[in-house]
Write a structure and sequence with these properties.
Layout (H helix, E strand, L loop, with lengths): L4 H17 L2 E6 L5 H14 L2 E4 L2 H8 L15 E6 L4 H12 L4 E7 L2 E3 L1 H8 L4 H53 L1
Antiparallel strand pairs: 1-3, 1-4, 2-3, 4-5
Helix pairs in contact: 1-3, 2-4, 4-5
Length: 184
């Protein structure tokens, strides 16, 4: 399907808006993938907040020109699907996870923080845990000393209070027996 000039300008403007907010772009060859599989890939991308689109490479080149992703233009040849996201890891993770289950999707390249990544770089980026997981791990590390300290305090207070609590019932049971004896 051929696009007229106004349609091409609209596509470039749309993609340029996505690229302006993006931290990562990943491209992959998609030839031979069935439509149903691409639909599943698009659904996963939407869940992760990733903009996923098949574009004409010339339009993609115009969209990334004069941006931090301009170095990626040399890799934009052949039938490619573009994964663009504000999360640094999500675009790489979506395509990499899908490529593991579908050998017809071949990771080609990516760009993160102005650096062009090859296939190995994209896979390394995809293996980084998501922001939420990293924050949870950091919070766990920060809470670990505090929770250990609280457990030590609780254990020491139980040790100190444990014999005293055990002695109190014993004295109480002995006292009524003593009181009962003089009264009898």
């Amino acid at each position: 399907m051929s696009l007229n000039l106004d349609d091409k300008k609209a596509v470039v403007a749309e993609v340029s808006a996505q690229v302006a907010n993006a931290q990562t772009i990943v491209v992959a060859e998609y030839s031979g993938i069935e439509v149903g599989h691409l639909t599943v890939l698009r659904a996963k991308a939407r869940e992760q907040g990733v903009y996923l689109r098949v574009l004409k490479n010339t339009l993609a080149r115009r969209a990334v020109a004069d941006t931090a992703f301009a170095g990626l233009t040399e890799q934009l040849t052949g039938p490619l699907i573009y994964s663009i996201g504000t999360d640094p890891v999500a675009p790489a993770k979506v395509l990499s996870d899908f490529a593991k289950t579908n050998d017809k999707l071949v990771l080609r390249a990516g760009s993160y923080s102005g650096k062009v990544l090859d296939k190995a770089g994209v896979q390394a980026l995809a293996s980084v845990p998501s922001k939420e997981v990293l924050l949870a791990q950091l919070l766990g590390l920060m809470q670990s000393p505090i929770s250990r300290f609280a457990r030590v305090l609780a254990a020491s207070s139980e040790q100190k209070a444990g014999p005293a609590v055990a002695e109190e019932p014993a004295t109480e049971s002995a006292e009524p027996a003593v009181e009962a004896t003089p009264a009898a």
